[in-house]
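Morning. Coffee machine broken again, so started the prediction first thing and wrote up yesterday's gels while waiting. Chain of 282 residues, entered below exactly as on the submission form.
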Amino acid sequence: MKENKVKLNDLHIRYLKSEKHNSSKKKNILFIHGLGSSSDRWLDIPDALSRYFHPIVAVDLIGFGGSDKPVTIEYTIEYFSKFIRDVITCEQIWRNDDNGSDDSYKTIIVGHSLGGYIAAKVAIRDQDLIEKLVLIDSSGMLKKPTSLLEQYLNAALNPSFENVKSVFEQMLGNPTLLSPTLVNAFIKRINLVGAKYAFKSAFENSTKKHIESSELQSIENIPALIIWGAADRLIPVAHGKRFNEILKNSTLQIIENTGHAPFSEKPSMVFDIIRTFLINNK
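Came back before lunch.
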């Protein structure tokens, strides 16, 4: 994946984009990370998918990663949804270097946690932009923050190594998989100017409002894949089952012995599930 920057609505946005392979089929796929994360969190999955589809983009949400972090805005789901709509329709991001511009904005969104919440909201409001949805341990159904989410907020606002390490271990199905590099990378990101403000604002706006069932039911024509870690303590698997129950055109895959980010604990399994869904689900 190649690192890029684009100016969008006067803000600098960082994103990763796949290299084109001869075997790639034309399909726009957008990866949206979770709260406090960045596009790098997806590891090799977008790059591996690029052998089947192109272009693939993993974006740093406004307020996170290498994108700008203004402290003059409220990081609401509505704000993020508009941001993602602007990303989907930004020709500079999606055009193929060898084929010029492409007017097709129909996009597959893969969203994790907060990214899943945002993806679902975009699908609800702009169904013509979305081809398929992949929701991984998605927020959006919470009535209030879970205990671990509150611990995560505290760790983000007081980012000592031990605070962050403790929370990240609880997010994993197998805590021994936690790398100190991941902890240090989070601490480095959260200490950037504006990052704590963005985290707190996004936290408050995403955990105190939820998607209504009637809203989700309105996107029944969009195929959806729901992936969930069976041992997720941040957003328990019951929420994944609820998404599956409401989204009539959805499939639920529960990954055993994994926590909040199953794609980081069992990447090859999650990759195969996503690839199969994108190839076989028309």
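The chain has one domain: 2-280. Going to sketch it on the whiteboard this afternoon.
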